[in-house]
Amino acid sequence: MLSQYSRQFAAQFSNQLKRLQSTLVIAEHNNETLSPITQNAISAAKKIGGEITVLVAGTKCGPAVEKLSKADGVKRVLIAESDAFKGFIAENVTPLILASQKQFNFTHILAGATAFSKAVLPRVAAKLDVSPVTDVIGIKSADTFVRSIYAGNAIQTLTANDKIKVLTIRGTNFEPSSLEGGSAGSEKAPEGNYTSDLSTFIGQELSKSDRPELTSADVVVSGGRGLKSGENFKLLYDLADKLKAAVGASRAAVDAGYVPNDMQVGQTGKIVAPDLYIAVGISGAIQHLAGMKDSKTIVAINKDPEAPIFQVSDYGLVADLFKAVPELTGKL
Ligand SMILES: Cc1cc2nc3c(=O)[nH]c(=O)nc-3n(C[C@H](O)[C@H](O)[C@H](O)COP(=O)(O)OP(=O)(O)OC[C@H]3O[C@@H](n4cnc5c(N)ncnc54)[C@H](O)[C@@H]3O)c2cc1C
Q1: Nearest atom, ligand 1, residue 281 CA
Q2: What is the rounded distance in angstroms from the CA atom of residue 113 to the CA atom of residue 183?
Q3: Which keywords label this protein (predicted)?
Q4: Is the domain of 297 the same as that of 255?
Q5: 69 against 5, higher pLDDT
Q6: Residues comprising the binding site?
Q7: Rg (Cα) of the chain, in Å, rounded?
Q8: Ligand 1 centre and the CA of 301: distance in Å?
Q9: What digits encode the pLDDT tens for the residues 210-224?
Q10: Is the dihedral of CA 122, 125, 126, 130 positive or negative?
């Protein structure tokens, strides 16, 4: 009987604790559209419990704000529009997050684990004198998190004792939260002079592609050093077009200059977890596996039957890629 009471008490206490939390999610967007990782981050914030506020910093970011105001589970959208946020440079976004934190006293500050947050959140954590918890793949409670360490070779569960928890989450481990069904209030983020003299945004050249974005594609076809040249990647583009897939690459292929580095999958590249990952001419080094081994189905094409990629693949084809890939594309 006593243990039943203590279980009830523990459940009530945990629910009350959840309600006391308030999380600031940093939105990633291009003013018009939201990066899918923002929805994954909202989903992670829901697991923490309590109120969710999303910060949108940008220039003419009305469309992104509008989408977030309808996002399920979001209580408030904080809007900061200024030329200071052109290019989303970390030096300017950091003081805005700190000012928002000062005003609202969030218990958690959270963003997706992306190049953007990797530049911003460590600065925020340092200024708040707390330790950032990065690459979170699971949330056990408001202070206990599961994260991936040693390039995905070990899983760590830790309790963070800092008063404010600063987290980056792996998008592939949290289902995207719906952008419908909510009715968040919106208000201006704290005003301030956020223009830093440490760095200035000059411009950016974004690669344009009609193919799906690598980190959110359902199917990814990746090529490695086995492709032997950038021109030969055409074989993979043809296959990808048939499958409506994104195209990725190993670091060896990127380092050799076959393809640009925004296509790199792995520990120091992008983390992907599509329904189908086809690795072509990739040996399967642990640093590559760290970026794709959570894919639902893995297919490997490699001429070496001993290649480690076959240990993680669901379907393996020992074959010369220059013969197998055109054949596969032809059959599709
Ligand atoms: C700190 C650190 C971080 C790293 N981060 C990353 C990362 O993020 N991502 C990443 O990918 N790597 C990363 N690496 C590099 C990693 O260790 C490997 O060197 C790299 O993944 C190898 O790429 P690859 O499989 O394309 O090349 P290789 O290992 O050279 O493999 C090429 C494969 O192609 C096969 N092949 C060749 N010709 C054919 C053919 N005609 N038909 C079929 N198969 C063929 C070969 O059998 C071989 O298995 C990192 C390394 C370090 C030290």
Answers
A1: 34
A2: 26
A3: Electron transport, FAD, Flavoprotein, Mitochondrion, Transport
A4: yes
A5: 69
A6: 225, 250-251, 264-268, 281-288, 302
A7: 22
A8: 13
A9: 889 898 899 999 999
A10: negative
Say if residues 177 and 54 touch (Cβ distance below 8 Å): no
Residue 227 is part of a domain; what is its CATH number? 3.40.50.1220
pLDDT for residue 157: 98
Residues whose beta carbon lies within 6 Å of some atom of ligand 1:
224-226, 250-253, 264, 266-269, 281-283, 285, 287-288, 291, 302-304, 307, 320-322
Q: How far is the CA of 329 from the centre of ligand 1 (A)?
A: 23
- Whether residue 169 sits in one domain with residue 25: yes
Give yes or no for residue 303 having a pLDDT over 80: yes
- Return the structure tokens found at 148: 């991936």
Cβ neighbours of residue 200 closer than 8 Å, sequence gap 6 or more: 89
DSSP conformational letter for 41: H
Share of the chain above pLDDT 70, in %: 95
Name the residue with tokens 């008490």: 9
**For residue 208, is it within any domain?**
no
Length of the chain: 332
- Give the number of domains in the chain: 2
Query: Of ligand 1's atoms, which has the minimum distance to the CA of residue 307?
Result: 49
Domain that holds residue 242: 214-331
Name the band, by pLDDT with cuts 50, 70 and 90, for residue 16.
low
> Measuring CA to CA, which residue among 252, 200, 194 is closest to residue 57?
194
